[in-house]
Design goal:
This protein is of the alpha+beta class and about 400 residues long. The protein folds into three domains: about 110 residues, no CATH class; about 150 residues, YojJ-like (1 (3-Layer(aba) Sandwich); about 100 residues, RNA Polymerase Alpha Subunit, Chain A, domain 2, CATH 2.170.120.30. It has twelve helices and 15 strands. It has a seven-stranded mixed β-sheet, sandwiched between helices. The chain is rod-shaped, with a radius of gyration of 35 Å.
């Protein structure tokens, strides 16, 4: 029997897959943005709107439709920084994996230089970019493109150096720029007693996945800002362990598992959401016709007769209904029942009416071909024996 899923055309699959990917990106965005609670609330309102559409609550659906039209503009304004970061991530999904791997010697150079700067209480700010681009978040700077070394870092942050107040950008073993200005964070609670360098480090880590290392000239402490958080290390030498742990975690990200970081769960949610949207909106809510084969069953025969043959044994039934109802229906529920009660009067040809077709409730019968069946009968075995 042909499955009703035959109406689930390839274009529908492409449509649902496209929406699913967009929903997956939206879910990932909601998880990472600072305003995720507000967005989760908006998602719940969106669910209420979809339910209103599915139940044909026209007034409720109309009110929500106008509300969401205005809400789109509000979201763009309020979350413009998060949206920009999302689009930057899309443009850098496969960038910088191999070129950003840092050898042990590079980490050692950074650790030694930071330890000496902290011991002499010389302020410093070092940026280690990862996958996401930082160009749109930083300003100024002097190009250098030199190989990293301890003397080079110490000379750049020397108080007598013109560029000592800015940040240096290290990509791999290359020192790209120095005297760079970073965006300042406004999260005073996270900054605590930190100064301008700490605010700059935290500000950049809030906008991208870069790691920022800060040396405080007032206290001689070393802090690390990453993923929108900043923490003070117990001692400068702990920086080696921090960089090693961060490197291991990010190399693991480059070989992602389906379920790591809830990406798989988000994928399932996105697929379910895309299917729900398809079921509610066009073409899920469009009227569609589909023709399926249905087996013919003869019922209510007299006890003294039995079936010898039925021609045809299967007919083609054309059904009409909402596409979502057709997709969700079980094709095995479609059959034709012929009432053989009049066979005792000699009838052998039976018409198939709409009432003869058993099908799921939401579906209507449009046509049956052929619309008649011929039944050949013979005396039942018991009846024949009794007569002889």
């Amino acid at each position: 029997m042909t499955n009703l899923f035959s109406i689930f055309f390839w274009l529908d699959l492409v449509d649902i897959a496209t929406v699913g990917v967009l929903l997956w990106l939206a879910i990932r965005f909601v998880r990472r943005t600072r305003g995720r609670r507000a967005l989760i609330g908006l998602t719940l309102l969106g669910g209420v709107y979809l339910l209103a559409r599915a139940l044909d609550l026209q007034l409720t659906a109309s009110l929500f439709q106008g509300f969401f039209a205005v809400l789109v503009l509000v979201i763009v304004v309020v979350f413009q920084e998060d949206l920009r970061r999302l689009f930057e991530q899309l443009g850098s999904l496969r960038r910088g994996g191999s070129r950003e791997r840092r050898g042990v010697d590079v980490a050692d150079v950074i650790v030694r230089a930071v330890a000496r700067l902290a011991a002499t209480r010389v302020g410093a700010l070092i940026v280690l970019p990862h996958r996401e681009p930082i160009e749109s978040h930083v300003e100024g700077g002097i190009p250098l493109d030199g190989r990293i070394s301890e003397p080079l870092l110490l000379s750049i942050f020397d108080p007598s150096s013109p560029g000592h107040d800015g940040a240096v950008i290290l990509r791999g073993a290359q020192l790209e720029r120095f005297a760079v200005h970073l965006p300042l964070s406004v999260n005073r609670a996270a900054l605590g007693a930190g100064g301008t360098r700490h605010a700059a480090a935290l500000g950049l880590s809030e906008r991208c996945d870069a790691t920022c290392i800060v040396v405080s000239e007032e206290r001689g402490t070393v802090s690390v800002a990453r993923d929108g958080a900043i923490r003070v290390l117990a001692r400068p030498q702990d920086l080696a362990l921090d960089l090693l742990a961060a490197r291991g975690a990010r190399e693991s990200e480059e070989r992602p598992s389906w379920w790591r970081d809830r990406a798989g769960v988000d994928g399932v949610l996105a697929a379910a959401g895309a299917l729900a949207l398809w079921l509610v909106f066009v073409p899920g809510s469009a009227l569609t016709e589909v023709t399926v084969p249905a087996a013919v069953k003869v019922t209510n025969l007299p006890d003294d007769l039995e079936i010898e043959s039925v021609e045809p044994t299967e007919v083609q039934v054309t059904l009409r209904g909402l596409r979502r109802d057709l997709v969700l229906s079980d094709p095995d529920q479609v059959s034709v029942r012929v009432d053989g009660f009049l066979a005792r009067m000699g009838r052998r040809t039976f018409a198939i009416s709409e009432d003869s077709v058993r099908r799921p409730d939401p579906l209507d019968v449009v046509a049956v071909h052929p619309d008649r069946v011929k039944v050949s009968l013979r005396p039942a075995a018991g009846a024949a024996g009794a007569g002889s």
